[in-house]
Amino acid sequence: MLQVKEGDFDRMGLIFERHHRAVYGFIFHMIGNREESEDIVQNLFLRMLNYRNSFAGTGSFKTWMYHLARNLLSDYFKKNSKKPYMYSVENFDEKITEEYFGDIEKKQELQTLQMAMENLSIDNRELLMLCRYEELKYHEIADLLGITEGAVKVRVHRALSQLKSCYLKIAN
Q: Does 1.10.10.10 match the CATH number of domain 95-172?
């Protein structure tokens, strides 16, 4: 990104190739619409280009990228008066379905997990998605949310505890 900032715009294509799938997955899991997710991803990379000078290079690129993505999602929810998507296992593409949901028992467990995730607050769900699905490090999430790494650890622990509690209630 520092090279893009200096005017080497060809590097933006490389950045797109490296990161568009991950950020699309994050956005899709928040809004649940393929076309709108694709639009937001395109807007994200345009915004990255437009705001390239705001990337200082001192922090993580992924943190900066997800910060912009979260801002776009916030704008999307405000503009469209929509709530975050309550996703279902049927919305995953076939490759993921075959890879992770091969047997019926596992599919049932994931449906229970999905229901438990729906019972979480949007903040807790977003936090768990960033931490577990997007595999951001605690210090990256701390930078993204503007809180300390210790606070992230506490929030993740609480979110996981809440998720476990919801999961057990649903499973029983």
A: yes
Q: How far apart are CA 122 and CA 85, in angstroms?
A: 10
Cβ partners under 8 Å of residue 154, min gap 6? none
DSSP class of residue 131? I
- In tens, the pLDDT along 92-127 reads 444 444 554 455 667 778 788 888 888 888 888 889
> Nearest to residue 131, comparing CAs of 64, 47, 66, 55?
66
CATH class of the domain comprising 1-85: mainly alpha
Tens digit of pLDDT for each residue in 45-78? 999 998 888 888 787 888 899 999 999 998 998 8
On whether the pTM is more than 0.70, the answer is no
Listed by start position, the domains of the chain span 1-85, 95-172
Query: For the packed helices 61-80 and 138-145, what is the interaxial angle rounded to 10 degrees?
Result: 50
**What is the identity of the amino acid at 136?**
L
Longest dimension (CA), the chain: 58
